[in-house]
């Protein structure tokens, strides 16, 4: 009798045998893979190799859309994505949480798995990676299980997939929990050996992500045609080393544009030093810009590095450059030409390699003609010019910015303000905004504080916007006119809330249906304007 050949474990063959379970719900095909994971984790402590296997299993046999292994750094109290699939590097960099924050933070805080059957139904799912903008994500389920060792949470194993069967979802929760417990010893050893490295990587990722989120051009609010041209200029000049002059009225966001240029430029890894030329006393401008040696003048008790020296290897932003005196303009011109200077009281020249961005709200050409600004300096600064349009020329950007500030200040003040009423929007659009974006920001912050019902109304806006002089209207409103305006606004808002249902609107306003009909006729309001498509289809 011939001896039978030894059995060989063929993972592909075993997987094929169990892929076609008639219910479509079995996970028998991953049993050999669990064996492989256990084998790798016991033979060596290479976390990278182990995670490569796990993520591949999640992506292929388990057909997950996204998978993440997150590690918890107890010293900085942060949870960051260590490895993943289905996420870009930018999305991965945004995935930073604190214990108790979002689904991942709650898993770390409690040490218990959390299952979100539908992402769009969970208030805890923060989508900090911003990877769920596509419509299909709303139907996906999210699983997050803790990686624990001796009742200590080391991180999480999370996955996302669309499930047609609750049974299969439950099976995957148990499966991921099993995998998490198997890799826990390797994760613990990795954290012990690399804790400083993990902390530095996480902090570096957090800072870079914060800077990109704050300063990248796409984060400058507004999509109007004038702003699109500004974005295009930023994109073209950012990758060069050219000197940039930014022009625009006060409050339009010149510093924000300068920051966007720096953080998308070859100097992005260097410092970004901001200096307001109008804020320095005349006798201290040279010291602030170029520095001084100890004892060079009364009060110079120590050597001071000026803004140019501090910005070496990066970018210096000189705001309000039009306020410099002719004497200081000459000194600035010399630095632009030679890229070197001497500190006050110094003898050795200091050489710098940096990018210079300047800004002003003054008309430099007129100043050159009047002799108050050096012509040669103007042409040195005006290598590449970006003019930021005033808010009054940006059309619908007013509404976009207003909505942005409503969300921001509502969150900061713990209020549930959701939107701006139509009459208030009309008022914001008709105002000429002499203080530009900075003024709009202040107006919305004040209105959010005043709002009592989750909506910003026209009467929540400051008097300067409501008056005929400031809004550009010709006739001042009488008391009767203002009462009519408030009545009109309340009727419109109630009709919106009730999809044009006159009966429900009358009930909300405390009126009879007949009284509401008379007032709607007086204001020429039609309930049909506020009907949704579904309601219209039923009529």
UniProtKB/TrEMBL annotation:
Ordered alphabetically, the record's keywords are: ATP-binding, DNA-binding, Nucleotide-binding, Transcription, Transcription regulation
Domain Sigma-54 factor interaction per the UniProt entry, residue ranges: 220-449
Question: Cross-referenced Pfam families, in alphabetical order?
Answer: AAA_lid_14, GAF, HTH_8, Sigma54_activat
Write down the SUPFAM superfamilies for this protein, in alphabetical order: GAF domain-like, Homeodomain-like, P-loop containing nucleoside triphosphate hydrolases
PROSITE patterns according to UniProt: SIGMA54_INTERACT_1, SIGMA54_INTERACT_2, SIGMA54_INTERACT_3, SIGMA54_INTERACT_4
Q: Which PANTHER family match?
A: C4-DICARBOXYLATE TRANSPORT TRANSCRIPTIONAL REGULATORY PROTEIN DCTD, TRANSCRIPTIONAL REGULATORY PROTEIN
This protein is called what? Sigma 54-interacting transcriptional regulator
Source organism phylogeny? Bacteria, Pseudomonadati, Pseudomonadota, Gammaproteobacteria, Chromatiales
């Amino acid at each position: 009798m011939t001896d039978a050949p030894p059995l060989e474990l063929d993972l592909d063959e075993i997987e094929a045998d169990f892929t076609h379970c008639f219910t479509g719900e079995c996970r028998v095909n991953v049993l050999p893979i669990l064996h492989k994971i256990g084998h790798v984790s016991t033979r060596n402590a290479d976390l990278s190799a182990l995670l490569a296997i796990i993520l591949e299993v999640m992506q292929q046999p388990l057909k997950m859309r996204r998978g993440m292994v997150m590690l918890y750094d107890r010293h900085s109290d942060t949870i960051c994505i260590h490895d993943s699939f289905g996420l870009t590097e930018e999305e991965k960099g945004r995935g930073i949480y604190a214990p108790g924050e979002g689904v991942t933070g709650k898993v770390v805080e409690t040490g218990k798995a959390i299952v979100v059957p539908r992402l769009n139904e969970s208030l805890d799912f923060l989508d900090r990676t911003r990877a769920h903008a596509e419509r299909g994500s709303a139907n996906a389920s999210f699983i997050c299980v803790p990686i624990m060792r001796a009742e200590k949470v080391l991180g999480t194993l999370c996955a996302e997939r669309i499930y047609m069967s609750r049974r299969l979802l439950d099976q995957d929760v148990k499966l991921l929990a099993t995998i998490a417990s198997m890799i826990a010893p390797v994760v613990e050893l990795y954290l012990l050996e690399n804790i400083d490295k993990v902390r530095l990587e996480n902090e570096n990722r957090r800072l870079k992500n914060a800077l990109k989120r704050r300063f990248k051009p796409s984060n400058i609010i507004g999509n109007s045609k004038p702003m699109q041209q500004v974005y295009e200029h930023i994109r073209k000049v950012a990758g060069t080393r050219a000197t940039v002059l930014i022009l625009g009225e006060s409050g339009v966001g010149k510093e924000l544009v300068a920051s966007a240029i720096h953080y998308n430029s070859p100097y992005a890894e260097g410092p970004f030093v901001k200096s307001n030329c109008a804020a320095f006393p005349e006798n201290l401008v040279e010291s602030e810009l170029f520095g001084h040696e100890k004892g060079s003048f009364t009060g110079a008790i120590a050597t001071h590095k000026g803004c140019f020296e501090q910005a070496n290897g990066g970018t210096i932003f000189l705001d309000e450059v039009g306020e410099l005196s002719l004497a200081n303009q000459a000194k600035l011109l010399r630095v632009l030409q030679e890229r070197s200077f001497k500190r006050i009281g110094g003898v050795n020249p200091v050489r710098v390699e940096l990018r210079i961005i300047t800004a002003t709200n003054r008309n430099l050409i007129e100043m050159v003609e009047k002799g108050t600004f050096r012509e040669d300096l103007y042409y040195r600064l005006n290598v590449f010019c970006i003019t930021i349009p005033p808010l009054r020329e940006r059309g619908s950007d007013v509404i976009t910015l207003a909505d942005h500030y409503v969300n921001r200040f509502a969150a900061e003040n713990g209020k549930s303000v959701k939107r701006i009423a139509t009459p208030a929007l009309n008022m914001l659009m008709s105002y000429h905004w002499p203080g530009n974006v900075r003024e709009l920001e202040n107006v919305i912050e004040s209105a959010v504080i005043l709002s009592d019902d989750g909506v910003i109304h026209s009467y929540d806006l400051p008097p300067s916007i409501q008056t005929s002089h400031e809004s550009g209207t010709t006739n001042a409103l009488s008391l009767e006119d203002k009462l009519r305006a408030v009545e009109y606004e309340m009727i419109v808002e109630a009709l919106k809330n009730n999809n044009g249902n006159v009966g429900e609107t009358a009930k909300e306003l405390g009126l009879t249906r007949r009284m509401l009909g008379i007032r709607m006729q007086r204001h020429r309001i039609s309930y049909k304007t506020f009907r949704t498509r579904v309601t219209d289809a039923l009529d």
